[in-house]
Every structure is written in structure tokens, then in C-alpha cells.
Amino acid sequence: MTDVSGVRTSRLDSVTSADDTVIGYRTVGHPGTGARQPGVVVLHGAMESSHSHLQLAEALAADFTVYLPDRRGRGMSGPCGADHGMDRELEDLDAVLTATGARDLIGVSSGALITLRAALDNPSVRRAVVFEPPLSVNGSAPTDWLPRYEAEMARGDIAAALVTGMLGARMGPPVFDRVPRPLLKLLTKLTMGSDDLPDGTGEPSMRTLAPTLRCDLRLVSEAAETVGGFAAIRAEVLLLGGDRSPAYLKTALNALERVLPRVERVELPGLGHGATGNRNRGGRPELVAQVLRAFLKP
User: Fold this and answer.
1) Which Pfam families is this protein grouped with (predicted)?
2) According to the model, what pLDDT value does residue 198 have?
């Protein structure tokens, strides 16, 4: 099967989580000639979906079977729900791990927060790659923009809410801080896309993903100031980040490096928070795959 992005995808599957929410996922890999390829689950971050790391999965597929879940609220999966939080995310991940038999995790941004908790709580997790979690350390992760985002979403001004989120999380280039908000809003409105395919298998638009930001922010809130607890993780952990990413993400990686007992750290030169994503979103999937392959080698 060929995905709409041009990346070869072996199949689309789904599992049912503990609260009966359907969690869809993509499986990317090549047929092996001997023992079954080791499995690895990639958890995407905010404003992303299973689509966002298809090229990374393809770059790893010669050596691993890669599973790409749509986290709640995205693509093939059910809605976040009123009780969404870390517990639901861990239940969803556990359902995917049980169905696939995978024991290695790659978590990106808010997906890295879930990966850290899974590595702490689930003894079956063997190795975990943690890419730039927005883990607040002494108030380092910015969340003061949330009320404005919520107000803009409530009145249906999705473009404005996306601008607020981008500026608040410091994910745009530095020049964006000098661009008038009305211009940023206009540019966002022109590029945020329309409604998605009814079956959820296509790449979600920014318009569709915008409401899921509040789901990710719940995870950020729950995980805030918990870095010390991760000292109990016994899985091998690779901390990964780009040297062009916002300072608060480096603060989180620095703090984790000090407490994790079995840890490696790699900084990707010239790359930022989008490093793991598809090339059309500024990612460098082949370069990232080289680092991951060395850490996840069987």
C-alpha cells in the first residue's frame, strides 16, 4: 500500500483502549528474511498526527517495524473526551504496545511526556527516545498564552488561536516576534487548510488539529515539576534535541540528563523542534534515523 505522502505503508490498523475509544495506527516496515523485525512505536506531538513521521518511519523500516498511532483527537482515532489526560494517553499506548508487541518508544514533544511516563510505569518498555518534551522545570515551560487561545477558539477564530499557540510556545522563527499579529493571522488563515478526509486517513489540516492543542496542554500541566520522579526509570533513555530549539526545551533535557540513571544525550546541529518530522515540515528524517538506529540497534 502506498500512502498519500508517497511513503510505503504496509497497513492501517486499530485497537480499542480501556475506555472503548478506538486508536488507529499505521504500520511501516519491510518484510524480513529471518526473525521478526523489532517493533518501535512513535508518539507524535502537538499539531501532529501519525502522518507527521511517515518519512522517519520509512528511513527506519529496513531495520524496524514502526508503528505510528494517531493520538486521541487526530486522524483515525476517537476524540480526546472530557476526561482526557495522561492516564488516557497511557491506556491508549498500552493498547498499541499489547497489540504490536513493541518494547521501544520514540516520543516527540508532548508525545515525549507520555513516553517518559510509560518508561516509568511500564516495565516492558526497554528503550525510550525522548525528543524535546515540554517538561516544565521551575516554571520554564510557557503556558500563560492558554487563556487567549481558549477565548479565540471559543469564538471560532481558529487562525488567531493558532498564532497565539505558535507565539506562546515559541515555535516560530525569531522574526515572527516582529511581524504584526494581523499579518501572521492572515498568513495562517491562507495556509491552515480545510476539513479532513471523512475516514481520517489523510494528513490532518492545521484547522482540524487546532482544538487538540488543549489536549496537549493538559499533559504539560500534569507533567509540570515532576522531573525528579523520572529518576526511577530503568529503561535505557536517549535524550534528543536540536540546537536551534527554544531554551525551555533544552532546560527540560538538561534536567532529565541529571536525574535519569541510564541516559545518553545527542544534540542535532542546525535543527529545531521539527527535526523528526517529514521534510515538507522542515524535518530531517534520514539524519534523525541514523541517530535512532544506533541507539535502538537490536
Assistant:
1) Abhydrolase_6
2) 57
Average of per-residue pLDDT across 235-252: 96
Q: What is the mean pLDDT of residues 111-130?
A: 97
Query: Cα(first)–Cα(last) distance of the chain, in Å?
Result: 27
Using the structure block, give the residue that is written with the C-alpha cell 545527542: 266
Q: Taking each helix axis from N to C terminus, what angle separates 146-154 and 158-168, rounded to the nearest 10 degrees? A: 170
Q: Are 285 and 158 members of one domain?
A: no
Q: Identify the domain containing residue 254 by its residue range.
A: 11-140+218-296
CA distance 144 to 170: 12
Is residue 4 domain-resident? Answer: no
Question: Concatenated DSSP letters for 165-208?
Answer: HHHHTT-S-GGGGGS-HHHHHHHHHHHS-----TTS-SPPPHHH
pTM (predicted TM-score): 0.91
- DSSP label at 40? E
Residue 2 lies in a domain: no
- Here the cell at position 181 is 499579529
What number of other Cβ atoms are within 10 A of residue 172's Cβ?
13
When mean pLDDT is compared across 155-159, 164-168, 233-237, the lowest value belongs to: 164-168
Segment 9-33, tens digit of pLDDT = 568 999 999 999 999 999 998 644 4
CB-CB contact of 253 with 239 (8 Å): yes
Unique residue bearing C-alpha cell 488567531: 160
Q: How many CB atoms lie within 10 A of CB 137?
A: 18
Quote the mean pLDDT of the chain: 90
Beta strands across the sheet bearing 39-43: 11-16, 22-28, 65-69, 39-43, 104-108, 127-131, 236-242, 263-268
